[in-house]
Amino acid sequence: MTIKVCVGSSCHLKGSYDVIEAFKEVLKKYDVEDIVDLQASFCLGHCARGVTVLCEGSEPAAHGSQVEECENGFIIHEVNAQNVEELFANEIYPKLNLN
Ligand code: FES
């Protein structure tokens, strides 16, 4: 799976850098650095609900208030350094198909 954290101007102001750093920590903690590619992305088109994170190469996610299906995976809205681990554990980790 590829996780793309938006670093467009709006998301940048909302803390993209901290979100990327938090994702790095969480990927290390869950020992999935080798199977998840963490990248920065240009504007993902959902600026009002940033920080926006696109998870590509996954089965579609269930719809939740923060999660939206898209063509090649799902988008998570309103990500911040404080909720990265919870969102990762609930929305991303189960879709890595590690079993
Ligand atoms: S700046 Fe992040 S979605 Fe537009």
Describe the structure.
The protein is of the alpha+beta class. It has one domain (2-96): Glutaredoxin (3-Layer(aba) Sandwich), CATH 3.40.30.10. 28% of the residues lie in helices and 22% in strands. The chain has 3 helices and 5 strands; from the N terminus they run E-H-H-E-E-E-E-H. The protein has helices at residues 9-13, 16-29, 84-92; strands at residues 2-6, 37-41, 53-56, 67-70, 73-76. A 5-stranded mixed beta sheet has the order 2-1-3-5-4, covered by helices on one side. Strand 4 and strand 5 (73-76) form a beta hairpin. The chain binds FE2/S2 (inorganic) cluster (FES). FE2/S2 (inorganic) cluster (FES) binds next to helix 1.
What class do helices, strands and sheet pairing give? alpha+beta
Heteromolecules bound: FE2/S2 (inorganic) cluster
CATH architecture: 3-Layer(aba) Sandwich
Proportion of residues in β-strands: 15-25%
Helix content: 25-40%
Low-confidence stretches are: none
Radius of gyration (CA) equals 12 Å
Number of strands: 5
Keyphrases for this structure?
99 residues; binds FE2/S2 (inorganic) cluster; 22% strand; Glutaredoxin
SSE topology sketch:
Layout: E1 2-6, H1 9-13, H2 16-29, E2 37-41, E3 53-56, E4 67-70, E5 73-76, H3 84-92
Parallel strand pairs: 1-2
Antiparallel strand pairs: 1-3, 3-5, 4-5
FE2/S2 (inorganic) cluster binds at residues 6, 8-11, 43-47, 50, 52.
